[in-house]
Amino acid sequence: MPEMTDTMTALKSELTALVESATDLTAIETARVAALGKNGKITALMKSLGAMSPEERKTAGAALNVLKDEIAALIEKQEAALKKQALDQKLANEQIDITLSPRPERRGTIHPISQTMEELAAIFADMGFVVAEGPDIEDDFHNFTALNFPPGHPAREMHDTFYLPDDPEEKGEAAKKLLRTHTSTVQIRTMTKQKPPIRIITMGRTYRSDYDMTHTPMFHQIEGLVIDKDTHMGHLKGCLTDFCRAFFQVDDLPVRFRPSFFPFTEPSAEMDIGCSRKDGGLKIGAGDSWLEILGCGMVHPSVIRNCGLDPDEYQGFAFGMGIERIAMLKYGIPDLRTFFEADIRWLKHYGFDPLDRPNMATGS
Ligand code: DAH
To answer: Which of 123, 198, 254, 271 could be 227's S-S partner, Cβ–Cβ 3.0 to 4.6 Å?
Structure first.
């Protein structure tokens, strides 16, 4: 069967050349069909075996099977090589050089309000306070009535409240929606939800319809509340004195408490810190002048009762202050309104490095 052997030798080199010259997966598929497909060259030879004598068929069949396996293996090898090549190419194209250093220039800064809030949280956390939260959209009950501002009480008018349309799904005071005018609302939200002992601070946005050098319609407050069985005014004074000394980083900062009035505290006080004013400058610390810093007092028995607690069993103190105000004093920022102008130059100047920890937590 010499011509069969010659045909196979010629076919082997032809198909080998065809497979090896395939440079992509489509070409490989074309080669496979040409060799082993239904009308492929090897398949055609297989079919021709039927016309042979049994003797011839035996040798030619065996040889043809070898050729078929060889070509199939070659196709498989070439296909694997092409696939690997394609993957390597893809990986090379998609490579990210993670050794590249980050941009050297500092981009964003931490807003002084965020920085101050982190400092406040760090100082009060050290004293065992936990952070509580309440909504910006409040109702008349939580913002006023429960805090001992009865309807028609003149102190309500001091708050320049933004009222919202009534909520048809609620009744009475709960239906009268407003933007909270102070964070004292969270006193009520906490006491109605949680049994004493309570030791919380809350920080967030508050709203009043007011706008000048020292007022913006939105500003931030921090509120503190401590309720237990025998918490007294001495605790209030000690806690707030320690706070002011830590916050302003003046160990012997003079402080004083002046009698004041808030509907939700009795007695009520305002706290001042010592300072000196020279040549138009302000320095916090011992001096001949005082700066008002916060409002505070012993929680009014009616407020405790309004929250479902017994004022004969529980008592405590509360305080509240403006976060912008203390940030302005600490960081020498002269105009409140600039906090909310989103002026990139102001943020670059007064903002804080994002990688810096709040200085209270590091003790620096
Ligand atoms: N809520 C008061 C305000 O917005 C601040 C305040 C005063 C809060 C005395 C208190 C407090 O908790 O005891 O002006």
So the answer is: 198
